[in-house]
Design brief:
Blueprint (H helix, E strand, L loop, with lengths): L2 H19 L7 H19 L2 H16 L8 H12 L17
Helix pairs in contact: 1-2, 1-4, 2-3
């Protein structure tokens, strides 16, 4: 088992919970979302590299700013995409002809 991928999952769940907590704080919640959105985007970009990490960081930034979307577990969904749903392209098989001289 790759412990670093499960460490990413634990961190992601923690960051999702932090983002969801602001939903339960009356009046101050939206202000905290404005503060949390760039932090969450930076964390997402640090956790996942490449184009998918950049797209996910933009998505988490928007999700944290939009009212009523705090329940979406963006970090956990990104982890699932990266380690469960995403299929790596398998190299195409090539046939190699071998001549045998008798």
């Amino acid at each position: 088992m790759n412990t670093s991928k499960y460490k990413l999952l634990r961190k992601g769940i923690l960051f999702d919970l932090i983002g969801m907590l602001t939903m339960f704080i009356p009046l101050a919640g939206p202000i905290l979302d404005i503060i949390w959105a760039p932090i969450a985007a930076k964390k997402m970009n640090d956790m996942y590299s490449g184009a998918s990490g950049t797209i996910a960081s933009i998505a988490v930034f928007i999700e944290e700013l939009l009212p009523g979307t705090d329940f979406i577990p963006t970090f956990t969904l990104m982890w699932l995409y990266t380690f469960v749903w995403k299929k790596e392209k398998q190299p195409e098989r090539q046939t190699i002809e071998v001549k045998v001289n008798d």
